[in-house]
Amino acid sequence: MPEIVSDSPRTRVTRRLRRWLAGGIACSLVSFVFAPQALAAKVENLRLWTAPDHTRLVFDLDSAATAKIFSLDNPERLVIDLAGSDVANAAVSRKFEKLNLEGSAVKSIRTGHQGNDLRVVLDLTRKVNPKDFTLAPNAKYGNRLVVDLEFPGESAVENPIDPIEARIREQEQLAAKRKLKGEPVAAAPNIKASTHPKRDIIIAIDPGHGGEDPGASGPGGTKEKDVVLKIGKRLKRMFDAQPGFKAILTRNSDYYIPLRKRTEIAREQKADFFVSIHADAFNSPRPHGSSVFALSSRGATSETARWLAATENRADLIGGVDGNLSLNDKDEMLRGVLLDLTMTATLNDSLAAGSGVLANLGRMNTLHKRRVEQAGFVVLKSPDIPSLLVETGFISNPKEERSLNSAAYQEKLARSIFTGLENHFERNPPPSSLLAWRRDQARGGKGGEYRIKSGDTLSEVAQRHSVSVSALKRANDMSGNTLRVGQVLKIPRG
Ligand SMILES: [Zn+2]
């Protein structure tokens, strides 16, 4: 047994492990004998990231290794055997013991040996679906073995949206799409004042990067993933405090989400808008200022936009996505999707909202570019959700890095994004939203006209416009209570 088990608690653990292995399960391990030429590796580090629906373990290895992974129940355990491998040194062993396991479904981690293999046993608090894959070295890391513990039945977001509310939004979005394409739309149900859904507008906030993808780093060591999470959380608080809005975060702590999973979360939650928050670096310390990006079908609007999109689109390679998803495939998909009419409408919405956000950012920070830029960001490729990517500032600029670290500055950035989007929805509220209802109320309240729809009653129309039935009848010279569809009533000032 090498030095990693020489300290006494470790030895105890290992002895216990040996005894345990000598028991019933040992026979099931006979098949896991590796060929002598199996790759051997040293484990140099173990990292762990916890998300609401999964935990990711990343073994950093000095060379590629093969692993055998299997579950045991009663109690729940996951066994990871790394062929012909070992832990690099005692410091790494201690790291195994010191990992923060909170919320991870892992109670404790034990290591030992099974023949020539390094055996890692995870004691679990719940049943998990394990998935594993290896990653080749990239700019940030060497060889890695990734083990994802998926929690069956858990949502990827912390407080998922109410399913009934989601259904209302889904139907509304579907109707809008049909209308856009000139397809027949079932007569819109007459929304009466008392039954108006007054739904919340859902904003999906996507703090970029996370977990083993730190994003860009500032000269002072600030990591983009940390700054954008803080800004994202502030932005969520603002929307949640605003009547008529609710926000969800694609990630609420430090873990990685693949680019396409981010938009998938927004779509599952039936979000009305998706905003991705970043603070990138450029290859020189000079560039500074905020910028706002929308998707482009025709290439980038500037050199920086092209450079940033290429950088962002590489995130999956760093963040560790098992995949045969090459960037070229995504670009191909992107071109296809952009032919869709809905996408054009979505893009126009994105650009309109983006101008508002940019204008507000311009009041607190210099702007990198005066208009909403466009480039082929994968994370913006949602055919039916208007989406923006906000570069809050360049973390590579020393002055901007300092600002990005300040709570007051983060709050101002969040406020600018909030105001831009809030104004956009005040101007263009979805029909079933509280904002649309309030706008209609306000129009009525100022006095004006109302066209009777099927299903309206005099008392409801009066109530909706905050006037009495008698005042309404007087203003329209009515004697009875009969209304006909299409009839226009004068609404007296309430
Ligand atoms: Zn970024």
From TrEMBL:
Q: What is its EC number?
A: 3.5.1.28
What are the record keywords, sorted?
A: Cell wall biogenesis/degradation, Hydrolase, Periplasm, Signal
Could you tell me what this protein is called? Answer: N-acetylmuramoyl-L-alanine amidase AmiC
What SMART domains does the entry give? Ami_3, LysM
Query: What single Pfam family name could you report for this chain, choosing any that match?
Result: Amidase_3
Per UniProt, subcellular location reads as: Periplasm
Question: What protein family is recorded?
Answer: Belongs to the N-acetylmuramoyl-L-alanine amidase 3 family.
One biological process term from GO is: cell wall organization
Domain LysM as annotated: residue spans: 448-491
Highest taxon of source: Bacteria
PROSITE patterns xrefs: LYSM
Give the species.
Answer: Cobetia crustatorum
**Top-rank EC class of the record's enzyme:** hydrolase
